[in-house]
Write a structure and sequence with these properties.
The chain is an alpha/beta fold and 262 residues long. It contains nine helices and eight strands. An eight-stranded mixed β-sheet has the order 3-4-2-5-1-6-7-8, with helices on both faces. Helix 5 packs across helix 6. It is globular.
Length: 262
């Protein structure tokens, strides 16, 4: 059965995209079929997973027919492409383009459900679907949340990260109230943690104090090899012994998020 998870934070720069693509790699390495949808017009997930782009991206998929004011059900299938050669077999990408930013301005009725409708009949072949949300709480974030089974939050242990968590939590609650009452809240992942430094240690404790059991016990440590992997558009597993510790942590997170036996 397909499980669909939206990963977000209102603040950018928290390592959300790096976490998302490496979760996808960990799941694919375990034999799962994974779809990663890039809802951010910055296209970082798309450029990192490096699919061979065709004529369609999410910008075209989420556009509407002027006569019906509807997207075409199932149209997302036309934009899906396999991830590039650096990535494990089994990862497909629903890519973004900079034009996707235009979709934030849509005002027609039903705009919150366009992604969900465009994916009708498309997601069933996948074991896991990941929506990488943009770092804001606009229509693309609402679409990703409305098309998900579960929402997870990734944050860095900073004051601004904590503010971003509060904002995305508010967005999740509004989507649950008005658009998707079956959306469940997963957990908050503290990323890029440096427990030996005072400020990250203080902010991590603050996040745990404020959100309690919603915060995942596991944290993801800051690691230079993750920056290398992102720059090379490759999974951290490609870095062998240097990437072993963060790769194991991301595999553990992937198994927790998608309830896969470790």
């Amino acid at each position: 059965m397909t499980k669909t998870v939206a990963i977000g934070n209102q603040k950018g720069g928290v390592g959300k995209t790096t976490t998302t693509v490496n979760i996808a790699a960990a799941l694919a390495a375990r034999g799962l079929r994974v779809l990663v949808g890039d809802l951010d017009p910055q296209c970082n997930t798309t450029s990192t997973l490096a699919p061979e782009l065709g004529p369609y991206t999410l910008a075209e998929v989420l556009d509407v027919d002027p006569s019906t004011r509807e997207v075409v059900p199932g149209s997302a299938a036309a934009a899906i492409a396999p991830a590039g050669e650096n990535w494990p077999t089994g990862i497909d990408v629903l890519p973004a383009s900079p034009v996707l930013s235009v979709r934030e301005q849509d005002t027609w009725d039903g705009r919150e459900y366009r992604l969900r409708r465009a994916c009708e009949g498309v997601l069933e072949p996948y074991d896991a679907v990941l929506w990488d949300l943009p770092p804001n709480i606009g229509q693309l974030t609402v679409n990703g949340l409305t098309a998900a089974d579960e929402a997870w939050i990734v944050t860095d242990p900073t004051r601004y990260g904590l503010d971003g968590v509060a904002l995305i939590m508010g967005a999740i609650e509004r989507v649950q109230r008005y658009h998707h009452p079956d959306l469940t809240l997963g957990q908050i992942v503290i990323n890029m943690h440096e427990p030996d430094r005072q400020e990250p240690k203080f902010r991590a404790a603050e996040i745990r104090e404020r959100y309690g059991d919603l915060v995942l016990d596991q944290t993801l440590a800051r690691a230079e090899v993750l920056r290398k992997a992102s720059g090379a558009a490759a999974p951290v597993t490609a870095y062998g012994a240097e990437g072993r510790v963060p790769a194991a942590a991301l595999d553990q997170l992937a198994c927790t998020m998608f309830e896969v036996a470790a």
